[in-house]
Structures are given as structure tokens and as C-alpha cells.
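User: Peptide ABC transporter substrate-binding protein. Structure?
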Amino acid sequence: MKLKTLLMGAAATLAMAPAAMAERGSDGALNIIMWQAPSTMNPYLSGGTKELVAASMVLEPLAGMTPEAEMFPRLAAEIPTLENGGIAEDLKSVTWKLKEGLKWSDGTSVTSADVVFSGQYCMDPEGGCSQLAKFEGVEAIEAVDDLTIKITFAEPMPDPYSAFVGANSPILQKAQFEACLGVNAPTCTDQNFNPIGTGPFRVTQFLTNDVITFEANPEYRDAAKPAFATATIKGGGDAAAAARSVLETGEFDYAWNTQLAPDVIAGMEAMGRGKVSAAFGSLVERIHVNLTDPSSSYPEGERSTAANPHPFLSDPAVRKALSMAIDRQLLTEIGYGDAGQPTCNYVPAPEAWASPNTECLTQDIAGANALLDEAGWTMGGSGVREKDGVPLKMVFQTSVNAVRQDFQALIKQWWSEIGIETELKTVDASVFFGSDPGSPDTLQKFYADVEMYADNFEGGNPAPYLAKWTCDKAPSPENQWQGENISRYCDEAYDAMMVELSKTVDPAERAKIGQKLNEMLTKESNAIIPLVYRGTASAHSNSLGGVDINAWDSELWNVADWTRVEQ
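Assistant: Predicted structure:
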């Protein structure tokens, strides 16, 4: 990506932002509701979007992404390119330079040592970093001087904008976190709840799964920002209550992730207090199939681990039948309307990386039954198929959410029509998307047979997102259940193709490999069953200015530019 293009994109974004207020904090209090309450302020210890969003109020990466998927410098002075010498000609290193004069919220200077430490923190093999794929291929991170960082790759890296780009991999303060490396990472409660940052706000109180209060960061690099003196993120409730609190009662200014049926949203917007904005990025609602056995008959530490394959979901025919039985068009209509598209892709964008496969878009109950018959799964008198004494009985879990519960009910019915008995389980979103390694109900622990959720990646490079599915990234006790490979998918051919992708420079060839990897996860293995390509949607008050919803980074990416406006 050319530096000129990047800077033009950044300039355009800044031009759209409201004019800076004359005095920091002059607009009073900002109230945000996230019905999926954050459980930590450290995105390195959570795979949940809610933690990423909350943490972005405080922690920042070297570069971010605009709503147009254009990269812009955040803590970096500029985006490294071949033209400006930031990217080596052999593509084996990238050199970043920090802005001069950056301060942490405690008044100390930000230096290259903090960036080097942040890489060490995530790449520590005992740390259980949830964002490890962001550092795929990184061989070394070194401080050239106080403001210069060089990242060296094991192989030529055609797209070096992964580590420290986007809200998933921010810079941590070395002085605060240096005692939190490896196995100590999750035990550093004060650091994880109250990180010292460079963002527009700093934490004043963190109550896990409840409320976070902030004040304007007195050391923020723009003396006129943020416009709000304080901010609050309130957690709990559900998507409908959160949307009502903005669109009907006006209690809150912004409601994150208003995942509701289109007719429900329309009724709330009719009150005239605010609106829901949506943007398409890479968010796909999907089902993950557990390829390991979650049975409670195993001792703690052995459930849902590679040592114990799943008794029937290890059969490709069963996984394929699960996908064939689903009517994705109907799910999209009832759940998202125009804010969704039925999909067979795990990676739906950029377009060049999306597989042209559309086979799954046609529901085929008869075909699914025939496939299971052929695979030897016979229908019993109770309407449940079995083979060698193993019945097709599953637990299907997801977070508490009206749309997801509608999806569960429909999918359960379709699966019953092919001889699969499904028990539905719902988990409070704050727990399901949480990071507590002691909880049995996190999506990473996966103590169920299948589970449904959505997440996304930043920017236009899906390679790190696809890298999450290599064999070494499965959650386990060894990485404190923070691994990214939720389905426990393991295919040597997939791992080899990821290596090939890391060595491929030509954009068209990279996209072809990306399509193949996409299909290996979905069409070929059905370890991931895509359902709906979703828009990112949130509600905001008419009195809140500067909101520019972003599906490629944190939704609060430009919270420093938000203002109170007259209605």
C-alpha cells in the first residue's frame, strides 16, 4: 500500500471528524453500554471483541484502520513502506518510528522498549496470548533507538502490517507489565484491569463484568481532546435493553453491538432519539464444530483436548450433514435483514480472498439424510441416529442473545429432521466471551459439541486470521485455554499451506492460497460452518457527534473525536 494513499485516507478521515473542542473535557460525561460486559482491559488475554473495544479507550497500537480499511499511523510517526525505507527490499523486516513526545497516562515517556516488551509478552509460549497469530512469522523485535523498532521475519513478509496494527495488538507499558510475563500474565489483576495507556482515556475503576469508569487522559497527545471529561462503560442486560437505553430512553449515548431483528430496530428508531449505524467488514456469524470430546467423563484438563477425538463429530459426513441441513437465507432474513448476507465463507472479504463456493446456500435435508445413511448412521426408533452404540446427541451453546436464540431454535429443528438430537445451552455473554481460565463456559474451553459466535479481523490482510487454525494454536491447559483454534482443527496440509502463504509475495497468488485455506476450514472439513456475513451494528444518540462506525478496527477507534452536539 503506497504511503501517499495511506496518508490521504488518514487525512480524509480526520477531515470528516468534528472540529476539536477548545478545552479538553468540556462536554462532560460520555455513557456507553456494552451488554456483553468486558472481563478484562487486556486484549492479549481475551479472544472477545468486547474486551478489544473497551481496551481501545486506553491502549493503542502503532497503527490503526479507518472505516475504509485504510491504515493510518496512531503511535507511529508514519506507516513504513518500501518507498520511505521502512520496509526492507528483501521484505524480511519492517522498521517503525514512534511519534516524538508520546507519554503514558502516568506521565512517563513511551519508548521502543515498550514495543519490544509487548511483543515478548504475547509471544511468550507460556503466556496464553489470545492474539498470537498477529505475530506469525516474527523472528525478532528489537529497539534500534528510543523511538525506532525493527521487526524481523523468518521469511519475506509481503504484508508486514500485522503485529501492533489494529486494536488487537496494542502497546503495553513495560514498567507496568514486566512482572506479568508467561504464566504470570492472568494473575496480574491490577495491570489487566487498570492498564496505563496512551489513549484518550484512563481507567479510574474496573468492576469485572459490570462497569468501567474512565477520565480524560491528562497526557493525551492532543491537548484539546477528548471532548468528554469522563466516560462510563456499563455492562449487562441484553442487546434489546441496550438499544432501548439509547434509542428510546436516552439514558446512554452509545450502545455497542445491537444485534437485533430489523423490525425491532425500526420500531426503536421511530422514537427519533438516535439511530443504528452498520458497516460491513469481515464479521461472520458461524458455528464451530468441536473436533475433540467435551464429555465430563474426562478429568479436568482432558476435556476438549487433542488427546481425545470427538466420538462422532470426527466423522466428516456428520459435519457435512450439519451444514447441509441449514437454511442460511431464512436465518439472514429473520436475524439481520439488509444488514446480513448468507455465506459459505469464513473469510468473506477482501473479495479476492473469499471463496466463490456457494454450495451451502441451498438447504438440502434429503441430501443430508442420504449422506448419513451412506456413512452408516442409522435412524433409531426415537428418531435419533446412531452407529456402533454412539447416538447423535449434541450440546449446542452460544451467548444469550435474542437473534442467536432464534437461530438455535431453527437449527435444532432442522437437525432433528436428519436424526440429530440437540440440547440448547445459553451462556451469559460476559462469561462466554470472557477470559477466565477457571470458567467451564468460555468459548475457548468449548465444553459443548458445537457453538455459535462471530468475530472479525482488522484491515485488508486475512493471513493472521487464517493463521489461527494451525495445529499449535488449540486452546489447552498448557496455554491457559487462551488458544485461538477454537475447533481444535489440525491438518498438516493446512499448516503447510500457511507456510506457503507466508512466503508468497504476489497479491493474486496470496489471494488464491487464501481462498484455498478458506475452503479447507469450511467446504472441505466443515470444522467451521459459516451462516451469515453480518454488518457491525451499534446504536448512537443524535446528541453524539463524530461517530464513524468501523468494522475494520475497534468501534471506538475515534472516540477521542466524539463530541456533544446540539439537537
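The domain at 281-535 is CATH 3.10.105.10 (Dipeptide-binding Protein; domain 3). The longest strand covers residues 274-289.
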